[in-house]
Amino acid sequence: MTGRALVETLAITGPHAAMLRAARDALCADTLALGLTLVVSEDWRELEEVNRANVATWLPLMHQPNGEDAFWLAAVDRDGAVVSTHGGVLMDCSGRSFGERLSDLS
Fold first, then answer.
1. Which long-range contacts (CB under 8 A, 24 or more apart) does 88-94 make?
2. Do 53 and 81 meet the contact criterion of CB atoms below 8 Å apart?
């Protein structure tokens, strides 16, 4: 997996930054205690490759939404293997609500 960043190193700013950093740090500490490291990547092709390699035991991957900032999180074990993933999309809902976008799957 290339182009990844440790979740624990992500910059968090804004009015609730201290609370969000504390939550992030606790989550990272808990997963590290389980022998896992959390990483984040914007390279959707890597997620597709990981999903193909695990197609027999993982749920199918939905396509990357067009025109949106997509990312994915991974839990990586001590051997460097991705053992869990979760994809996400940052959507601009300033012009249309999330409900409107969901109703037409845009």
1. 89/65, 92/68
2. no
Q: Where does the pLDDT of residue 67 fall: very low under 50, low under 70, confident under 90, or very high at 90 and above? A: low
Closest by CA position to 34, among listed 79, 77, 5: 77
Q: Assess contact for 82 and 76: CB atoms under 8 A.
A: yes
Return the CA Rg of the chain.
16
Residue 104's pLDDT is: 74
**Average pLDDT rounded to a whole number, residues 10-35:** 96
First to last CA, the chain: 29
Q: Are 73 and 65 in contact (CB under 8 A)?
A: no
